[in-house]
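Assess this:
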Amino acid sequence: MKFSKLVPSVFYIDIKDGLKFFVDCLQFSIEHQDLRTANPYCVLGKDGIRIMLFQDAQLAQEHYPELRIETEDIDAVYAKVSATHPELLHPNLNQVTRRPWGAKEFALADKQVGIRFQQW
């Protein structure tokens, strides 16, 4: 048995918040969208990563996921997002920090999801 990717689903009360976080801040592209329906959703992609965003208030209130994204140049990622969206930096890990397990990390959070960026 072989797996090739993990594609998380993230639920928002208002999908526009997710689009700001993933598309505006992290520069994901919208690969598919169905935003003008009773249950808006879209598929986002960047560098081989895919994320499904859904607008569902009930599920959004039940789930607050934390995702980890590995990168080979954490300083460049940090410089870009801290310059363009500093309000999304997580207060507990708002700068690149060497963690006890050896990875360099920083984190972002919006109303619905937290993302920890890592470089080993």
Remarks:
- The chain has three helices and eight strands.
- Helices lie at 15-25, 57-62, 74-84.
- The chain has one domain: 9-119.
- The mean pLDDT is 95.
